[in-house]
Amino acid sequence: MSLRYKRNSIHIKEEEQRRIQDFRVLIGGCGIGSYIAECLLRMGFENMIIIDGDIVELTNLNRQNYVEADIGVNKAIALKDRLMAIHPDAKIRAYPEFLDPSNLYSLDLNCDVAINALDFSSDIPFLFDEYMAQKNIAVVHPYNLGWAGFLTVITPESRNLRSLDKEHNAFEINVGKYIVDRLQEKNIDTKWLEDFLSEYGKIAVESPPPQLSLGLYLLAGMVCQVVFNIATDKEIRVFPESYYLSIYE
Questions:
Q1: Where would I find the THIF-type NAD/FAD binding fold domain in this sequence (predicted)?
Q2: Against a cut of 0.85, is the pTM above it?
Q3: Quick one: average pLDDT of 205-234?
Q4: Is residue 35 included in any domain, yes or no?
Q5: Which of 157, 172, 57 is nearest to 125 (CA)?
Q6: From residue 213, how far is each of 74, 144, 148, 162, 181 by CA, in Å?
Q7: Residue 222's domain is classified under what CATH number?
Q8: Where are any strands of DSSP class E within 121-160?
């Protein structure tokens, strides 16, 4: 095991460390994806494609992996710069553009696993999943719930998110209701999340969901574990099963 990953020892076997080094991870969306990318890189995933057409704004700095000097810079470019500062020999390819139905099929998005952190401002998250299913690639869906993190994995064999609702408008509300139902099945208290969804429902059409850095930190760790399990052929839960981590538990 190289000196860079020496402190990963015991937790990660040497053969697993070698295996994840070239395991190709595609991250669609560099908002939630920003800390996930860094967590993956520090763990030893050195081969990544990141894509986002958005620019860094001041309102992103309460939770995303950027600094004031990045304001006005494309997120994929700013994130690549940070990742390369951590590991100059990593293979990081950045596409500074929004995914849409045309470039989804023309960009080189070859990967071993995909992370769908795309905004539901259009139906592109659904199309992204469908495209990856055609390529037999699992897709990890992470959600920052503020005080908690939630994720599910879509595979070619599993149900997809269109089974919740075919429309993208305010889709986060439908995901939130689905999360509440899943947690209640496990007798987990959801009052705080239901209260949030009730308040967010009043502004959902014109505003993306409010999020906290704490939820994103939890989420980054969860995604890393799931991606590691996929890369090393360990068992994972797939949609409609899910993963949840909260400070309220």
A1: 5-168
A2: yes
A3: 95
A4: yes
A5: 172
A6: 20, 9, 10, 28, 25
A7: 3.40.50.720
A8: 139-144, 148-154
